[in-house]
Write a structure and sequence with these properties.
Helices cover 43% and strands 18% of the residues. With 191 residues, it is of the alpha/beta class.
Length: 191
Amino acid sequence: MLKVPWTIWITGLSGSGKTTIAKRLLDMFASRNEKVEYLRLDEIRQVITPNPAFTREEREYVYRSSVYIANILNRHNISVVIDSVDGEGTGRALCRQMIENFGVIYIQCPLEVCIERERVRTDRAKIEKLYERAIQGELKIAGYGNPYAHEEFPFLVIDSDQLTPDQAARRIFDALRGNQGQESRDGGEKF
């Protein structure tokens, strides 16, 4: 259990279900009138870098800005959910340095499932067609062409191909509130 106010970083490959699960989790807190703010790095990037080049420097700038915002919100007793792949793990490392009550939620999902989910999506991510472009060699993304830095000691691991988004969000909600699950080998909760 993390002490309130906390910040969690929901990470996983594109298409693993991070955003869907994060939104369901936020709905659970909102239904109980609990203060939790959602920082979706894709949206923050659009504001602070309107014409993103997706360079390493730009990503680090977005991470620093987001962690700074999360820190301010925590100081005002507001917990924070950050949703981002963070393929190199630099944003998560920065959070660890700056935020006292921090945990990583790793959304585990087979690459093939992530690719299929993107193929059938109808939202903005469908337009980006990240995996399709990566398969054609047009770009490299975390987990396909670029490495993905798996979290060594996550607060929680969720197998999103085994749970519905509501079930996954409930597991995170329960863990944040102290309803513990079965401990995994790496010290995080495994559901």
